[in-house]
Amino acid sequence: MKRNKHYAFVLADSLIALTIISLGITFTLICHQCLVRQSKKQCIDLAAYRIAKEATDELITTHQPVYIRRDKLSAVASEEKVIVSLGGQTILEVGK
Fold first, then answer.
1. In angstroms, rounded to a whole number, what is the distance separating the alpha carbons of residues 76 and 55?
2. Which of 3, 37, 72, 76 has the fewest other C-beta atoms within 10 Å?
3. Dihedral sign, Cα of residue 90, residue 95, residue 66, residue 54
4. Any bridge partners for residue 89, and if so which?
5. pLDDT computed for residue 11 by the predictor
6. Contacts of 41 (CB under 8 A, 6+ apart)
7. In 3-state terms, what secondary structure has residue 95?
8. Distance between CA 48 and CA 86 in Å, rounded?
9. Residue in 71, 67, 73 with CA at minimum distance from that of residue 49
10. pLDDT per residue over 31-90, tens digit each?
């Protein structure tokens, strides 16, 4: 009987260890996905700021409304505001 208790303890210990390891792997993958999403969002934001800067620079030199399109990003700069959108969604809007 003592021998069976020993095997049961080893089995329970192994199950707990495997559960802890699988939770660690799961949380690591979740954190990795969050970091990838944040990185993509920051790259889009950086591109939006750059295209907005380019549109405002051109507005200042030409004194006419400007429309710039780079890949999927588009920027419209007028005397009142600058709007940068990705597809149909506004990403950045800066007013006077």
1. 7
2. 3
3. negative
4. 86
5. 85
6. none
7. strand
8. 9
9. 73
10. 999 999 999 999 999 999 999 999 999 999 999 999 999 888 999 999 999 999 998 899
